[in-house]
Request: fold
Amino acid sequence: MSGFVIAVDGPAASGKGTVAQGLATLYGLPYLDTGLLYRAVGVSAQRQAGGVGEASATAAAQALDPALLDDPELRTRAAGELASQAAVFTGVRAALLRFQRDFAAQGSGAVLDGRDIGTIIAPEAPAKLFVTASPEVRAERRWKQLSGQGESVALADILADIRLRDERDSGRAAAPLVKADDAVLLDTSVLSIEQAADAARRIVETARANWAKA
Ligand code: C5P
Reply:
């Protein structure tokens, strides 16, 4: 039997990163924020070619420097936008696929979060969560996060970003954001961080008991 893999998907600022990190700590599993890979591709295409087009983004994905993943610029609002532009290209997704699949396949098991973990990267994962929240709640969370980082943006602009990203991520042909049939939906709109973590833990405990029996 391979390791226990937890796939966490959901739209921007849904709380999936916090939930996934909490699960990784709880179960002692390595964690990969796959959004960071797309952010790195978008930022590097922007730096090297002055923008995100199919050729520049695919080249950036094929030559991705892992050191870039620690760059604080990846956490900015602009990087999120560049990431979602780069993520529509099949060449970009193909270039990032092996790394993510290898991460999921390590013997210890793993936790990955993103948009297509339960559907494309790790469709066999024994535990799948689809974390969501209303656009208004997500905008407020992202606004707080960006303000905390010293980036001043109007809440209404963040809400517009979120709606645009939802539309682009869900509407694209390549690996669109969609809940896997066997993923458990976790709506965090009215939950505190602790409540969301607790609900996620209960979902994963059930999946783990079934996995151990299999
Ligand atoms: O999760 P985060 O907001 O950092 O992701 C940035 C963008 O990267 C998303 O809006 C999405 O377009 C893209 N992405 C993706 N597939 C993933 C992770 C992120 O397409 N597995």
